[in-house]
Amino acid sequence: MTTAPDLWSSRAALLPVDLQNAFDLPSWGRRNNPELDANSRRLLAAWRRAGLPLLHIRHDSVEPGSTLAPGHPGHAFRAGLEPREGEPVVAKSVNCAFIGTDLDLRLRRLGIGTVVLLGLTTDMCVSTTARVAANLGYRTVVAGDACACFDLPDGVGGTVTAEELHRAHLATLAAEFATVTTTGAVVEQLGA
What we know:
Elements: E1 12-17, H1 36-50, E2 56-59, E3 89-92, H2 103-109, E4 114-120, H3 122-135, E5 139-148, E6 152-153, E7 159-160, H4 162-177, E8 179-181, H5 183-191
Parallel strand pairs: 1-4, 2-3, 4-5, 5-8
Antiparallel strand pairs: 6-7
Helix pairs in contact: 1-5, 3-4
């Protein structure tokens, strides 16, 4: 992980991605990064203190029986990470927050040039959103220690651990799409 770029070289917005209760259900399996919630709360609190734009991303699944479907208890935001009054929520139904939503339009209307992402999961919705953000021309930052993955089957009878997936996805993002940094580095810049 590297230090955060100068967030102030363009107007920045925070995009917490899919910080929802469903990811605590046993059906998702074993997750890495037990500090996800603490780091996410720390980053969210610092961002709010700085008074910068913040758009929450929520997965509204359209798949029957999904734990992320509206009406399921798993659809709700995680404790301490809920939007406050006046903070917009962008609802998506696929793994990219820009597809089928007005996120790009909202960011452009706010004059945003940099997006800072955190959330669940590193290898799916965070990675996909970060890649598309970069392709749309946004300076993209990922707070890697405020993201997490789950163990996944490797397709040939084994398992790729959450730690391996997390590390690999942060590495590929850092290679071409985003600056990968830490919660502490972003918070330090917010306080500078």
